[in-house]
Amino acid sequence: MGMVSIEPGSYHVVPPQNPGEVIDLIRTHAIQVVDLRFTDLPGVWQHFSITLPEVNDDLFSVGIGFDGSSIRGFQEIHESDMLVRPDPATAFIDPYCAAPTLALICDVLDPVLHQPYSRDPRHIARKAELYLRQTGLATVCYLGPELEFFIFDSIRFGQDQHSGYYHVESAEGEWTSGRDEGAYGGGNLGYKQRYKGGYFPVPPSDTLQDIRSEIVLALMQAGIQVEVHHHEVATAGQNEIDMRFAPLMRMADNVMMYKYICKNVARRHGKVATFMPKPLFADNASGMHCHQSLWRDAENLFYDKNGWAQTSQMCRWYIGGLLSHAPALMAFCAPSTNSYKRLVPGYEAPVNLAMSQRNRSAAARIPMVSDSPSARRVEFRCPDPSANAYLAFSAMLLAGLDGIENQTDPGDPLDKNIYDLPPEEAARIRQVPGSLEESLCALEADSAFLRKGDVFTEDLITTWIDYKRTREIDTLKVRPHPWEFQLYFDI
């Protein structure tokens, strides 16, 4: 299993723009199978494959049917017929299928109304971009998420009526420093990542350099520009690969490809990648810090040479919107029960709803790595990679636009370590919710900003809340937790 190879000059693939160019791509690369992919409500790719005779004009105009009742968060069984319609601009050659396969990301359609399906996450992102242009404030919102993830050697977990457990294995893990690693017994290779010590030692401590490089090459082969990759802070294989910023919906598409490629490269090497935010106790978790800015054509509207941290008033109002709506935003940006094991003090997690420059302990910060006008942006640090990128990116944009519309003051900058503030001063700083349930309650109380431009429908919001409560929160409530036996068994 060697590295993915890339032809010179093929790093930045020009995607097809119409069905005819997709057909040309199929012929040029002797494609045998076409794979159609779409995103369910929680944010996981679903797919089915078609043969070449089915690739015709109707596929790109009318679409092709599937059973929507089997997809999480979609239709009931009595209204199950749905359509997917591929977007030609998303075509890429899948490097993990034995048969030459072209993958296409699809939009979901209602076959009765002949309109985009209101619960299709990609449709939400498209409406968010349209609403931005309709406001006249900007023409494009650029997103640059930093997805962190773990690559483990093994993961075992399970729970039934009488037992429950999980077990993580990683050759990098601090806990393996005393383990016998010799093929025939006797010995340990050392160089383990200490807890919170994974940023940035070179190999052999960093055992995942080549795997990350393989992921990067595969991403570039799929047409995604990558800027940097590195080991992250936690022990046991935490990683980060940063994609170059892109318009909102395109970046959400990229996130789906990113997750797919990371998981499949890891599997090729007999390992497993996870975007679960907090798989390890007592070490850093995985975030998805989201860099964002508004532009009018080639002009960055967040830049002002004379403003605080060289930001414009529009940028600061945008931040005000993010901070004021943050409790509701967390329902989409930190949407798992596990997310709130990350959002606790002491692990570089931004629990404090404050604005700062350079300071990573603030929820919203202004990176100061460049004086270039094009580099001025806000980094919102609360989201994590369990989020559905289409929904999370759209929700953040709408919160920011609401802040601009209402000229929301983000408060005074806090350019110091917020975790070290005196108790009386720290008590005045708002914090993110402490649980998914709190975030869902905040969303119920504060959703008007999401419904502007009909971007998020009332049906989508109520379906999301109901799904999270019944499928995730309630199922966790009724199951004993292993730590409860430590706390209470001898009471």
Automatic annotation (TrEMBL):
<keyword id="KW-0460">Magnesium</keyword>
<feature type="binding site">
    <location>
        <position position="148"/>
    </location>
    <ligand>
        <name>Mg(2+)</name>
    </ligand>
</feature>
<feature type="binding site">
    <location>
        <position position="360"/>
    </location>
    <ligand>
        <name>ATP</name>
    </ligand>
</feature>
<dbReference type="InterPro" id="IPR008146">
    <property type="entry name" value="Gln_synth_cat_dom"/>
</dbReference>
<comment type="similarity">
    <text>Belongs to the glutamine synthetase family.</text>
</comment>
<feature type="binding site">
    <location>
        <position position="240"/>
    </location>
    <ligand>
        <name>Mg(2+)</name>
    </ligand>
</feature>
<keyword id="KW-0067">ATP-binding</keyword>
<feature type="binding site">
    <location>
        <position position="348"/>
    </location>
    <ligand>
        <name>L-glutamate</name>
    </ligand>
</feature>
<dbReference type="GO" id="GO:0046872">
    <property type="term" value="F:metal ion binding"/>
</dbReference>
<keyword id="KW-0597">Phosphoprotein</keyword>
<keyword id="KW-0963">Cytoplasm</keyword>
<dbReference type="InterPro" id="IPR036651">
    <property type="entry name" value="Gln_synt_N_sf"/>
</dbReference>
<feature type="binding site">
    <location>
        <position position="342"/>
    </location>
    <ligand>
        <name>L-glutamate</name>
    </ligand>
</feature>
<dbReference type="Pfam" id="PF03951">
    <property type="entry name" value="Gln-synt_N"/>
</dbReference>
<feature type="domain" description="GS beta-grasp">
    <location>
        <begin position="29"/>
        <end position="113"/>
    </location>
</feature>
<feature type="binding site">
    <location>
        <position position="232"/>
    </location>
    <ligand>
        <name>Mg(2+)</name>
    </ligand>
</feature>
<dbReference type="InterPro" id="IPR014746">
    <property type="entry name" value="Gln_synth/guanido_kin_cat_dom"/>
</dbReference>
<dbReference type="GO" id="GO:0005737">
    <property type="term" value="C:cytoplasm"/>
</dbReference>
<feature type="modified residue" description="O-AMP-tyrosine">
    <location>
        <position position="419"/>
    </location>
</feature>
<keyword id="KW-0547">Nucleotide-binding</keyword>
<feature type="binding site">
    <location>
        <position position="381"/>
    </location>
    <ligand>
        <name>L-glutamate</name>
    </ligand>
</feature>
<feature type="domain" description="GS catalytic">
    <location>
        <begin position="121"/>
        <end position="491"/>
    </location>
</feature>
<feature type="binding site">
    <location>
        <position position="289"/>
    </location>
    <ligand>
        <name>Mg(2+)</name>
    </ligand>
</feature>
<dbReference type="GO" id="GO:0016020">
    <property type="term" value="C:membrane"/>
</dbReference>
<protein>
    <recommendedName>
        <fullName>Glutamine synthetase</fullName>
        <ecNumber>6.3.1.2</ecNumber>
    </recommendedName>
</protein>
<feature type="binding site">
    <location>
        <position position="379"/>
    </location>
    <ligand>
        <name>Mg(2+)</name>
    </ligand>
</feature>
<dbReference type="InterPro" id="IPR008147">
    <property type="entry name" value="Gln_synt_N"/>
</dbReference>
<dbReference type="Pfam" id="PF00120">
    <property type="entry name" value="Gln-synt_C"/>
</dbReference>
<dbReference type="InterPro" id="IPR004809">
    <property type="entry name" value="Gln_synth_I"/>
</dbReference>
<feature type="binding site">
    <location>
        <position position="146"/>
    </location>
    <ligand>
        <name>Mg(2+)</name>
    </ligand>
</feature>
<feature type="binding site">
    <location>
        <position position="360"/>
    </location>
    <ligand>
        <name>L-glutamate</name>
    </ligand>
</feature>
<feature type="binding site">
    <location>
        <begin position="291"/>
        <end position="293"/>
    </location>
    <ligand>
        <name>ATP</name>
    </ligand>
</feature>
<dbReference type="GO" id="GO:0019740">
    <property type="term" value="P:nitrogen utilization"/>
</dbReference>
<dbReference type="GO" id="GO:0004356">
    <property type="term" value="F:glutamine synthetase activity"/>
</dbReference>
<keyword id="KW-0436">Ligase</keyword>
<dbReference type="InterPro" id="IPR027303">
    <property type="entry name" value="Gln_synth_gly_rich_site"/>
</dbReference>
<feature type="binding site">
    <location>
        <position position="227"/>
    </location>
    <ligand>
        <name>ATP</name>
    </ligand>
</feature>
<dbReference type="InterPro" id="IPR027302">
    <property type="entry name" value="Gln_synth_N_conserv_site"/>
</dbReference>
<dbReference type="GO" id="GO:0005524">
    <property type="term" value="F:ATP binding"/>
</dbReference>
<keyword id="KW-0479">Metal-binding</keyword>
<dbReference type="GO" id="GO:0006542">
    <property type="term" value="P:glutamine biosynthetic process"/>
</dbReference>
<feature type="binding site">
    <location>
        <begin position="284"/>
        <end position="285"/>
    </location>
    <ligand>
        <name>L-glutamate</name>
    </ligand>
</feature>
